[in-house]
Each structure stands twice: as C-alpha cells, then as structure tokens.
Amino acid sequence: MLSKLQLHGEVWLAADIHLGPNSPKTAQAFYQFLKQAQKEAKALILCGDIFHAWVGADLAMDPPPWLAHAIYHFRDAAQDIPIFFMRGNRDFLLNPRMAHYVGAQMLDDQVILQTDHHRMLLTHGDELCTDDVSYQNFRRRVRNKRVQQLFLALPLSWRLAIAGGLRKRSKNKQQVMSAEHITDVNEIACMDLLRAYDENILLHGHTHRPALHRMQDDEGRIYSRIVLPDWEFDHSNPTRSGWLALHADGQMTLHRQHQAPLKFKLKKQHDV
Ligand SMILES: [Mn+2]
User: Which domains occur in the chain, in start order?
Assistant: First the structure.
C-alpha cells in the first residue's frame, strides 16, 4: 500500500528546481514562485530534485549562503501553507529531519495524492526510466541503506567532494541537463505502476519534458501522465520553469514558461 496524502483546496506541484551554489537566478525565480504559492495555494508539493545535490542534513547546520537563502524562504512560506518534499535522484538523501528543519514534511518516494476533486500517484519518476539500465543499477546501489550509512559517516568535506565528482562525471557525459540527455520514462513501467495500485493518473518530474500524455494498455484501459517542467534560469536560454495547479473545482493548469497555460480536466478514477 502506498501512503496517502489528503489535501483540500487548491494544491500546487513543482519539481526539479535543482537549488544549489551555481544557480542563483533559478533560486530567485523559485523564491518568487514560493511567495505566489504562499498567497494563492492551500498547499505546495515539491516532487524531488529540489536540490541539485544533497549530502546530508549537517550541511544545513552551518549553511553556505545559497542554502541559508533556501532555508529562509522555505520557512517563510511554510508559515502560511503546508509544504511537502519528495526525494529525487539528486537529493535522495533528504530526510524527515531536514524537511522539518525548514518547516516542510517529507513524503514517501511514491504517494497517492487525494484532493477534493483529484486523485493521482506522485513520484519523482527516475525509477520509471527503466530503459537506462546503468542508471537503475547506480540507483539500486545509492538507495541501499548500508551504502547511505557509510556515505553519511564520512566527513562533510569528503561528501561534498564526492558529490561534486559525481556531478562532474555526469556533466561530461551529459553536458547540461537538457531533456535530450535524460532518458525518458518507459510507458509500460508507468502503466504497470498505476495498475499495481489501481490508479489511472500519474504525475512525475525528472525528465524535463513537461506535458500531458494519454496512455493505453493492452486491455484498452486509459491512463494519464502529467509531467512537471524543470527550473533553469542560469545555464539555459530560453529559461525554463513551471508548475501544476490543481484547482478546487476539479480543473488543472500546467504552467510552462514561454507557453500558454494548459488547462484541462481529467476524468475521475475509475470512470474512464
Ligand atoms: Mn531528477
């Protein structure tokens, strides 16, 4: 069974902000969005890769300036609306203690979101990129509890160096994090996941390919897949950002920068 997050009123969701020392403009844009969410939404869910890398909660105890800003803005927004964190492939070491420290709540890696008019399965999405076999092997290793304990026992400076090295290596291989360098999710894996929990709407980030997809399985059942955009204002032209708003009347709006908002309504669970 997946845990269920029950919320009322307008809910906003975003992902892949990749906050870190090298993206001050992205951070600035995101903090403006946080302010807007604070005023207009009843809750905010961040579906992973909130941070470009996360090496352990002790970094927050004596935070570098970029992280001090992030902590300040999260705490400020969390005074007005509940904020939920989900782990991504870059910040998979985020823990409930860190979330609590900034006023947020940590979610499981896969969660059922239930609002007044919406029900969907939320995940960061990297586990669904099953065509990337080497990444899935890497993921299994770093998601191993023992491996994580060993890593977290290292001095902070070592952990930062290791994370920097990993990033550089993936950068050499992938250049920047544009969508064409990230393996897309496998649609069969998406439908298998939805079927396993008897759901029909999936929401994920990770792939940097914001869209609304319709999927159909062998038995003719219809599923929907909503993909959140990433945030990038420092290393990309045009810039990228956006979020999904779940309105209290059952409609949804997918906001993508430089594009008209995509407003739609999906049929409720089991009435397809
Ligand atoms: Mn990701």
Answer: 3-264 (3.60.21.10)
